[in-house]
């Protein structure tokens, strides 16, 4: 089972790593938008079940965008983004 998952996920990881730096930054930016929407959905005047479902879906999208963006950027891309914000290692 573990080897089967490795066979499936390794090509996906390699494909994501092959995308451009700019794509990684866009995906990470969408992560921020999804986080904001997930918590803004809690303020909607709808039932608690619908609020919970919205939060679950939007928070899941945020986490997926976060980890996908980090896979796209890689170690060097993360260093480059940190330099933009004035953080050095």
What does this structure look like?
With 89 residues, this protein is mainly α. The chain has helices at residues 2-17, 21-40, 48-84. The radius of gyration is 16 Å and the shape is flat. The termini are far apart.
Helical content, roughly? Answer: over 70%
Residue fraction in strands? under 5%
Any idea what the shape is? Answer: flat
> Which H/E pattern describes the elements?
HHH
Record field, number of beta strands: 0
Model regions low in confidence, pLDDT < 50 over at least 5 residues: none
Counted by DSSP, the helix tally is 3
In round numbers, the mean pLDDT is 88
Give the structural class: mainly alpha
Kindly report how far apart the N and C termini lie: 38 Å
| Cα Rg | 16 Å
Provide the number of structural domains. 1
Major beta sheet summary: none
Q: What characteristics describe this protein?
A:
89 residues; mainly alpha; flat; 3 helices
Could you give the topology of this structure?
Layout: H1 2-17, H2 21-40, H3 48-84
Short description:
This protein has 89 residues and is an all-alpha fold. It has helices at 2-17, 21-40, 48-84.
């Amino acid at each position: 089972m573990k080897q089967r998952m490795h066979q499936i996920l390794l090509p996906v990881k390699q494909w994501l790593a092959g995308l451009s730096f700019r794509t990684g930054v866009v995906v990470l930016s969408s992560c921020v938008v999804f986080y904001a929407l997930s918590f803004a959905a809690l303020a909607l005047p709808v039932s608690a079940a619908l609020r919970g479902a919205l939060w679950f879906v939007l928070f899941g999208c945020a986490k997926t965008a976060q980890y996908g963006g980090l896979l796209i950027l890689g170690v060097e891309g993360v260093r480059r983004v940190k330099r933009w914000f004035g953080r050095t290692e």
